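Marked as duplicate of an earlier ticket. Keeping the data here for the record.
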Amino acid sequence: MPDIDHEGGWLLTLDGTPQSYVDLQDPTHLEFEYVQRIAHLLDVVADPGEPLEVLHLGGGALTLPRYLARTRPGSRQQVVEVDGPLAEFVAENLPWPSGIELTVGDARAVLESVAEASVDVVVADVFRGSRTPAHLTSVEFVRLAAAALRPGGYYAANLADGPPLTFAKAQTATLAAVFPHVCLVAEPAVLRGRRYGNVLLIGSDRPLPAEELTRLLAADPFPARLTESPQQAVEPVTDATAEDSPPPPAGAFSLS
């Protein structure tokens, strides 16, 4: 659907759930707060304008790849999208710039084929409907992502959860089982377990740029809080125990 309030803006919905927002005239215009938070990470992991090699698990309308193509020209990006007809629809109606390669396939299956130590950042933003599939939430999956990263690389996973944040806590423990440095980013109301919302988890084998990220997050229209090394008294999720992320409450993504 075109954004009648912003020329060049388009909203992609799937089964009534807002999936992506893109601005074809200005790819740096990011409408969704959680996308802006991932973009902040991409802004601070290297010197301004320096090209990156990034693997995006989950494509949608390719909001972040478009952003990175504008802010870091020359970046090499691979996008994995499981929905072939959706990828064709986006290519026809919302074409993306050169330098972005799209692969149709399951995120984990493609990740298994990625060369070790070949990318700077892995972004996991995969939803089936409004839920993250179970096979993309386990420690075995996160280890695959870690193997694809170069030394000093970053893994960022977007997920959604609500009170009492059982899923988010388990996912935090899962990342901590793989990466020595982990942080959690979310709006304060979500962190306090008061409402359902997005949670961004970041992991790396190097200390995280927490100070820079905190400053950028605080300046957003909807400020988020960054928590470093969050301790969780739960076990990491394995393939044997993995479950889809919890469904959102009724009306969480209402467009009315």
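See parent ticket for discussion. DSSP finds eight helices and ten strands in the chain.
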